[in-house]
Description:
With 136 residues, this protein is mainly beta. Helices cover 0% and strands 43% of the residues. Strands 7, 8, 10, 11 and 12 form a five-stranded antiparallel beta sheet that branches. The relative contact order is 0.20. The model has no long low-confidence stretch (mean pLDDT 91).
Amino acid sequence: xxxxNPLSKDSQLIFSSIKSxxxxxFYCTSENKLGKKTSKYVSVNVEYAPKSSSVSVDPxxxxxxxxxxxxxxDSDVSGDATYTWYKEGIILYQGSDNWLHFIxxxxxxxxxxxxxxxxxxxxxxxxxLFFDVLCK
Length: 136
């Protein structure tokens, strides 16, 4: 693409400290007096250990007994992740879903919740969230 500036004029492209933002498609061109040749694209996907994790409530605001509520584990994680949900330190769920859904929330659901996001490169645990349930 003529509008793009080359990342390097050398025969190799070296990332001294690769970051997730370096992910993308790359190609190279070579040129001499006989002509110009462009390579096929190579896709690079930089994966990393989870970087952040927090728990949010949907819908936001006060949680009233009998309502439907979802806790969401918001994580910056690459690749396939496993999520573990805890209430008061006890595992409630472990799997690929980053949410925990309450169809009819009740006072017994009140407590401290947190989640752990994990992939093959590491894991991170969210700060705890106090989940308060108001009686009708």
